[in-house]
Amino acid sequence: MSSEDVKSKVPDPETTPAPTPPPFSSLVTVDVHGASHRGNVRENNEDHFLVLRGGRFLEPLQGNVGADILFNRFDEVFYGIVVADGLGGALGGEVASRRAIESLISIALHRPDWILRLGKPELYEVMWRMADGFVRVHAALLHDAAENPSLKGMATTMTLAVTLGDDLILTHVGDSRAYLLRDGHLKQLTRDHSVAQEMVDRGQVGQHDRLVRELRNVLNQALGAKALECLPDVQHLKLSDGDRLLLCTNGLTDMVDAGSIEEVLKRDAPARVIADTLLNLALGRGGRDNVTTVVATYSIPDAKQK
User: Fold this and answer.
1) Which CATH number belongs to the domain containing residue 96 in this structure?
2) Pairing mode, if any, of strands 155-156 and 185-188?
3) Is there a contact between 233 and 162 (Cβ–Cβ < 8 Å)?
4) Can you give the residue range of the structural domain that contains 251?
5) In whole angstroms, what is the distance from residue 130 CA to residue 185 CA?
């Protein structure tokens, strides 16, 4: 074997990765809390939500290899928040929103692999999987309604936020919204899939036109709606330290204007207090629909640790 052959087999310290990558996603802390109420008018709550934490870990138990492996536990951690607002009245709406979330989780658990480190190809794959999950939920709800006549006409909105470290991926169908508060300024991240919003986008009416108020709850996309195609919106954003995320149903946004939502989100308070305050604000202003609020505040370490 020549000296050149020997050199080719020696790891290059500049290109060979360390035995374990430095932690990052596990160092991001998330203060998250959700609240849901049937409101002051409805007899039942057709809203459902779920907050979850998941990941993968490697914990060496015994061996005689280097200390950098033997004494280091490695974790990748993600958070998921999903909100769904059922449509179709009484039984149908309540069932649709619950089954949509259950179906989405089942689809994720049946995947043979979870992608928990994101380069550009992996990011695109995760975004595709999330959109595909929504399409599968749509099909599952259509199947359930076909099998059970009492569920005919059921459908649901659904908004899903998944964060891995400082990466946020949003998937959305309907008019349940996601907002981001950053540096004291509120931004609506989702676009309502409604007839009213479509008219505004086309320039046919203004945002504050009376017709917009009348048609704001007429959806042109919903999971399980037989006559509507499922085309979920998917987007990726980078989070910053101190960002505060809100997912909510239209029971909040129909009762509380964006300025009031911003003022509450700017308060220096735990997520539990913020979520409950927003919910109570909607109830205090009429509470004509079910109300769900989920608030998450992100503490993100220096990105150089990634």
Assistant:
1) 3.60.40.10
2) unpaired
3) no
4) 22-61+69-187+222-305
5) 28
**Which residues have a Cβ under 8 Å from the Cβ of 18 and sit 6 or more positions away?**
68
Report field, pTM of the whole predicted structure over 0.85? yes
Per-residue pLDDT of the chain (306 residues; tens, 9 = 90+): 454 444 444 445 455 555 677 889 999 999 999 999 999 999 899 999 999 999 998 888 888 877 667 677 889 999 999 999 999 765 789 999 999 999 999 999 999 999 998 899 999 999 999 999 999 999 999 999 999 988 888 999 999 999 999 999 999 999 999 999 999 999 999 999 987 777 776 767 666 666 666 677 789 899 999 877 799 999 999 999 999 999 999 999 999 999 999 999 999 999 999 999 999 999 999 999 999 999 999 999 985 455
State how many domains the chain has. 1
Q: What is the residue-wise DSSP string for 229-264?
A: ----EEEEEE--TT-EEEEE-HHHHTTS-HHHHHHH
Q: Exposed, middle or buried by CB within 10 Å (0-12, 13-18, 19+), for 195?
A: middle
Residue 42 lies in a domain: yes
Asked whether residue 211 is assigned to any structural domain, the reply reads no
Q: Which one, of 299, 291, 177, lies nearest residue 244 by Cα?
A: 299
Domain for residue 209, yes or no?
no
Q: Which residue has the tokens 């330290």?
A: 241
